[in-house]
Amino acid sequence: MIIKRNMPWLALLLTFWCGPALAQKKSWGISSAWHFGFLVAHNPTMLHLVDDHIKGVEVTFFRQTDGSAAWQSDYLFPQTGINLIYLDLPSDTVLGEAVAVMGFIDMPVLFSKSYRLSIRSSCGLGYLSHHFERVENHKNAAIGSALNAAVQFNLKNSFRITPRMELNLGVGVTHFSNGSLNTPNLGLNNITASGGLTYMLSSPDTFYQKPKSIPTKKWFVETVLAAGAKEIYPPDDGKYFCASLVVNRKHRISPKSALGFGGDFFYDSALNTLIENKENHPADVAPFRAGVHFSYELLISRVSALFDYGVYVINPYKGDGPFYHRIGLRYQLKSNLFLNLSLKTHFAKAEFAEWGLGWKFQ
């Protein structure tokens, strides 16, 4: 309880204590922020969880890019780093507390010598002290696991008050979900306003403005093989294996973006159980789905963010509707080989996480 009450002061102390210690490492910095907000009850079964506000603190370690790589100047010299966040959630005995460690990129939208408006996107792992348990914590209708994916989006205003110090004011959302690996999985959406200080260690001596690298091979084909597991309602009904085969044809429209279209083939061992639960009679269908999709990919060095919007052409189970979606991250290992981590969803309802490998044919 002593640590919990003094978290804001501990975060500020860490900023001022670590700042001078790191000052010899050019282009690095540290910041701290205090969060205050509320939990979004996006489902009626969560209304009983909203009995108080969210309070928390965040500490961020970052590096200021200087344009030495072409993508850095393309994105107006973003900051990259790691942030650690602690949130005291409402309904203490049911939701408890949340801690997350996330990697992030902070991309400027507007900036001058004294002001910076940026969008920070973070992704990592989160731990929840309380989750659904059939006996001990059956009122937690939101989350079924302690370990979850953590995703955060912030709109941040930074005001320079000294050559090395900035005041930060922002608003954002921090989301926790396990991708339906364990049910229930409604997820936690925490909207918070934040304020804090940044200690700027030093700016690079030179900012390089490299010419944009226009790709010579604009069209390419890629294929991805991925697999995962999920639970379905009611909770504790066991896990079901899922897999995806994806084929895309894409076009690089700029150094930062690619558009494309493709097809998906899904194996879902839960289909017969889902049909039986919905229609109250035995089902015997092939456990496969197939669809076509439109795709957008945002390219940031070796990492890219993926957004797909698809429609089923083969779908024996109608309970999820005709449309599906995919959001995810990819990391390029070699010129043609990449890692894939994505989440297949039906609008805001997660179905399963796709872990796999992909290959580009250029």
Can you describe what's shown?
The chain is mainly β and 362 residues long. The chain folds into 2 domains: 2-200, Porin (Beta Barrel), CATH 2.40.160.20; 219-361, Porin, CATH 2.40.160. It is built from 4 helices and 16 strands. The chain has helices at 2-5, 7-22, 70-74, 271-279, and strands at 28-39, 54-64, 79-88, 97-111, 115-128, 147-160, 165-177, 188-200, 219-231, 239-252, 257-268, 288-300, 303-314, 323-332, 337-346, 349-361. Strands 1-2-3-4-5-6-7-8 form an 8-stranded antiparallel β-barrel. An 8-stranded antiparallel β-barrel has the order 9-10-11-12-13-14-15-16. The longest helix is centred in the first third of the chain and has 16 residues, at 7-22. The radius of gyration is 22 Å and the shape is flat.
Task: Give the SSE map.
Elements: H1 2-5, H2 7-22, E1 28-39, E2 54-64, H3 70-74, E3 79-88, E4 97-111, E5 115-128, E6 147-160, E7 165-177, E8 188-200, E9 219-231, E10 239-252, E11 257-268, H4 271-279, E12 288-300, E13 303-314, E14 323-332, E15 337-346, E16 349-361
Antiparallel strand pairs: 1-2, 1-8, 2-3, 3-4, 4-5, 5-6, 6-7, 7-8, 9-10, 9-16, 10-11, 11-12, 12-13, 13-14, 14-15, 15-16
From the structure above, extract its key features.
mainly beta, 8-stranded antiparallel barrel, 2 domains, 362 residues, Porin, 8-stranded antiparallel β-barrel, 4 helices
What is the CATH architecture annotation of the largest domain? Beta Barrel
The biggest sheet amounts to: 8 strands, antiparallel, barrel
Helix content: under 10%
- The CATH topology name of the largest domain reads Porin
From the N-terminal CA to the C-terminal CA, the straight-line distance is 57 Å
Q: How much strand?
A: over 45%
What assembly state would you assign to the polypeptide chains in this entry?
single chain
Number of helices: 4
How do the strands line up in the largest sheet? 1-2-3-4-5-6-7-8
Say how many strands there are. Answer: 16
